Amino acid sequence: MAVSSVISRHTEESSFLWLLRSYAVHQPHYSLKDLAKLDLRVEAHLDGLRIAGDAGWEACRAELAWEAEGEFFAAGSVAFESGNADRIGVVTDALLAAPQAVRGLASSLGWLGLPRAQPYIDRLLASNEPVLRLAGLSAAAILRRHPGPALKDAITSDDPALRARGLQAVGELGFGALAGAVSDQLADADPSCRFAAAWSGALLNVGAAVPALRAIAQAPGPNAEAAAAMAVRRMPLPEANAWRTTLARQPDNVRAAIAAAGALGDPAAIDWLLSLMNDEKFSRPAGEAFTMIAGADLAYLDLEMDAPEGGDAGPTEDAADENVSLDPDDHLPWPHQGLVTQWWRANHSRFAPGLRFLTGQPTDIAGLTAVLREGRQRQRAAAAMERMMQRPEGGLFEVRARGDWQRSLLGR
Length: 412
Hints:
Number of helices: 22
Order of helices and strands: HHHHHHHHHHHHHHHHHHEEHEEHHH
Strand content: under 5%
Shape: globular
């Protein structure tokens, strides 16, 4: 009974910690060091399942009944690492009944690494089932391994999820040979595909990508902020600032304008961002954009204040509360406008007008690499995109990869 309890804990914790990790890689308060520590915890529980042998596998197999991403990560990790065809068959068959868990299975292959994952990726890419091809394509993109002809097949697939992931992978891999095919998808009827095409097109410097991104940003939706941020990275500074100002005048597009300001990195936006810090609706994203430009850590420098009453926009513990959506600004500090303004007045002379900055660093290769090493996850994602635009060879640095691998690549 004691042994069974330990195995059960390893199974549950590896699933839960992977789920925590899948959120952490996009969070504003996680650094590479924090991610590496979390990865050690994931690996410790996977190691417990390895040591448990058949009993560890059976525990993971039973958890697949939940049809959730974390459980597929744990089971996939054990199955693929074992090389046991029967176990792998169980996991892939289960995915056909639970396609919503595809991220977990793909991540298990990403965790395994090349070259061990390569034969399994190839088999998935050769499948007739779109969700299995999606898993293989996602794993190949995570590991920055070109999936061959399967990539072109994906971006012309009738399956929107597979098509969108293929379009995204073209940009991640920096595969300019498919830039024309990406351009053809800028008017895709599916919003996710259209955004993926525009996002990758911007990375590949496809001229028509910027107008497509601007159109997405100006029509409020789930990709508006990301589209605005990517668009300004490929626009001349005066044009980008003029467009950002236009967005800011439109009530539904203020958040997109804030995202654009942070991505552009021009200190000219600072006064406007400071003015938003007394607006409860926009205070926290404005603070994040300020930090993106100036590099001031609001919490570390005591430039924050307590949340205003009712300022938490996320779900509460009240069972009658129908708001169950996550707060998009969770883990962002509430900036104290007066203190932040004082800090800016004391430090603004370090920021030359007409230049772009990311967390106080110039947006040259050295500065961007420094952000990749020391920044928070959202800052690191921005640095990766900026660096690829300047040095496209090698594709987009994967800031969601295992922390130990990232640190090795960055020389840390």
